[in-house]
Amino acid sequence: MSILLAEERDGSLLLTLNRPDSMNAMSMELADMLLVRPEKAADRIKVTSPLGCAAVKRMVNLGTDLPVEAASDLNDALRRPLEATQDYEEGIRAHFEKRKPVFRGE
Description:
By secondary structure, the chain is mainly α. It folds into two domains: 1-46, no CATH class; 49-106, Lyase 2-enoyl-coa Hydratase, Chain  A, domain 2 (Orthogonal Bundle), CATH 1.10.12.10. It is built from seven helices and no strands.
């Protein structure tokens, strides 16, 4: 479902990492974010990891038509290299220090 929505909405839902409580809430938030206040969507995307965003875009572009197992393999192939990045470490540190991460694309 997320991949389908992300494809329809140019990946913005996945890039913000938000998890709505229900489809109705998601539809309302998504419509508000993309149609009424696109700058809100841009602001949310700007504070996420650029490397993570790039991986999500690749997954959406390459994985939407794949069978589930192949999509899972692609997801792993795109995710694993991110675990060796400074942004990954920054995200973990920020989480435990209860602060917003500062991603640098490294």
